Amino acid sequence: MRSRRDPGGRVPPWARSGGPLRGPWRSTALSHNPGQRVRRPDRARARAERGAGPRPLLAVLVAAGAAMVWFYLPVSALSVDVGAPTRPVARAGLPWLSTDRAHIVDASGRTVLLRGFNDDALLEPGTVHPAPLDETDATMMQRSGFDSVRLPIAWSRLEPERGRFDTAYLEQIAAAVDLLNRHGMYVVLDMHFLDWSPRWGGSGAPRWAALPAVPDAQWWPWESWRRHLSPAVQAAYSYFWLAPDWQRDFQQAWQMVAQRFRDDSGVAGYDLYNEPHPLPLPPGLFEKHWMWPLYARTIAALAQVDRNHLFIVEGTLFADFPTTVVPLHVRDLVYSPHIYTGSLVPPAFTGDRRPLQRHIAEQAGEAAVVPAPMWPGELGIDHAQAGADQWADTVLDAYDDLGVGWSWWQWREDSGWAIRNAAGDHLDTDFLRHIARPYLVAAPRGISAGRGDGVTGTLHITVDAGHHAGEVVVGWPSLTLGAPRLVGTCLAASDWDAAGSRVTLTLQGAAGCTIAVAAGAA
After folding, report:
1. Which one of 247, 297, 381, 394 is most buried, counting C-beta atoms within 10 A?
2. Model confidence over 407-438: pLDDT tens digits?
3. Positions of the chain with pLDDT under 50
4. Quick check: helix, strand or coil at residue 462?
């Protein structure tokens, strides 16, 4: 955020959207030796006598330097008091979620991993080509062991005319949430943006959110970047981040959504803004002075109507550059970076795991600074790309090592990025095996798991002596692996739910052991 006044004392419109950034302004004093004689050429003396000379230029340079120092000074952490939750009885099998330090937890305090897919069925046609979301989709995702879906929604469809909200679209969202909930999956609602608006073939903001007289010049030779670099698109992005009026409209749209779902535990949380990017604003400055302050204000606006759900914020998606983090202290906050290293972000993946591993470690470090649990909301690769299965294994191994959830892009469309095609007559089962790996859906403290293997079908669970009490739930992909078998000396009982693709484990007291879960029931 920034708050500066011009020399006339007025606050420019772009500065009114945020609070003050505190940082010292440094004055610069010029001195010279009084005893030193300085000989001026006649021309320089004449300029000085006329009041010209280097002083105005020096003043401009000093002012510019002071501004740069002000911009790059560290900013204070942000804090939002959202108040205590007021949660009614939860949906069966979908307890309310909150956060506890670096973990998402349920009402019993068990760590919950949200793992699943994105599904863009509710977006506008354009950059994306949404396919239907039906009962078969929900059944297949459930039988693959997943427990969540990130559901992108469109501000343009929520508020097609400024100040008028489409309740019919809101009910379409509710119907999709109900469908997925009935199959045991949480829903994360994501306010999606790509190329700003359907006005220019993208997704996100309403058509009315555009600046007049700015041309839509899609000149770039790479087709996928033409809309990204359009002056009309970039001008609209910049105006949104710098000015308060579209931000207020955006927050009111979120409040409409939150009003509808505030009592629904089947909604895990709200992903506030998909893939913010700094262009044409300078990276670093964008995050510190505009992105994080907008997150704080939007959370405060949401909390006016809904204090019950997770608030999910993203890092910038700007190639593989890191996100500058301003600590944001909010109850039930989750940090959601996206990763496309080697799939969308060049150079293409060649089998070298190190760039992926470094970037994931960097993102985990950002989450620790926020501070918030990490939940990558998008990752994916075209299955036709060389080494795609190894790319998937590399990323998901890293997330298993970190013990975090994720949401793969995407479930259904006519492209090499999807598992099921739009017509619904093909499922890429071979690639699904790399994504649908066994994992701990919910586990009390003191219980952890290694890397799940969805190809051969194995998962090893470590139970510490003195672990907390409570049932352990394993997501097991029956669609690709069939039924599981379990072996472990501290395992008292297990219950296999074939329809829900869940194994529920009951443990013996405070005993410790390793439990092996493998494909092929005895």
Report:
1. 381
2. 999 999 999 999 999 999 999 999 999 999 99
3. 1-41, 43-53, 67, 522
4. strand
Contact 110, 337 (CB under 8 A): no
CA diameter of the chain: 102
H or E stretch at 439:
strand 439-443
Question: Are the C-beta atoms of residues 355 and 341 closer than 8 Å to each other?
Answer: yes
Q: Rounded to the nearest 5°, which phi and psi values hold at 202?
A: -100, -150
Q: Which residues contact 274 (CB under 8 A, 6 or more apart)?
A: 152, 190, 191, 192, 193, 194, 204, 314
Helix (H) or strand (E) segment spanning residue 516: strand 513-519
Tell me the C-alpha distance between 447 and 470, whole Å. 10
CA distance 466 to 151: 38
Task: For residues 461 and 449, give the distance between their C-alpha atoms in angstroms, rounded to a whole number.
Answer: 4
* Bridge partners, 112 (sequence order): 442
Q: Convert the pLDDT of each residue in 109-140 to its tens digit.
A: 999 999 999 999 999 998 788 999 999 999 99
Q: What is the pLDDT of residues 438-491, one digit of tens each?
A: 999 999 999 999 999 999 999 999 999 999 999 999 999 999 999 999 999 999
- Across 482-520, b (16+ Cβ under 10 Å) vs e yields eebebebebbeebebeeebbbbbbebeeebbbebebbbe
Q: State how beta strands 338-339 and 378-379 pair.
A: parallel
pLDDT of residue 30: 30
Do residues 104 and 405 make contact, with C-beta atoms less than 8 angstroms apart? yes
Between the alpha carbon of residue 351 and those of residues 156, 238, 389, 391, 417, the distances in Å are 40, 38, 10, 7, 19
| Structure confidence at residue 26 (pLDDT) | 31
**What is the number of other CB atoms lying within 10 angstroms of the CB of residue 89?**
8
- Residue 222, token pair as written in the block: 């790479």
pLDDT given at position 15:
35
Long-range (24+ apart) CB contacts under 8 A made by 277-280 are 277/237, 277/316, 277/317, 277/318, 278/316, 278/318, 279/234, 279/237, 279/318, 280/234, 280/237, 280/238
**If residue 389 lies in a helix (H) or strand (E), which one and from where to where?**
helix 388-402
Q: How many CA atoms lie within 13 A of 490 on its CB side?
A: 20
Q: Are 316 and 277 in contact (CB under 8 A)?
A: yes
What one-character DSSP code corresponds to residue 39?
P
Whether 338 and 331 have beta carbons less than 8 Å apart is answered as no
Asked whether 166 and 192 are in contact (CB, 8 A), the reply is: no
pLDDT at 289: 95
CA–CA distances in Å: residue 434 to residues 144, 326, 453: 11, 35, 8
Q: Can you point out the beta strands (E) in 139-200? A: 148-153, 186-191
C-alpha to C-alpha distance for 160 and 154, rounded to whole angstroms: 10
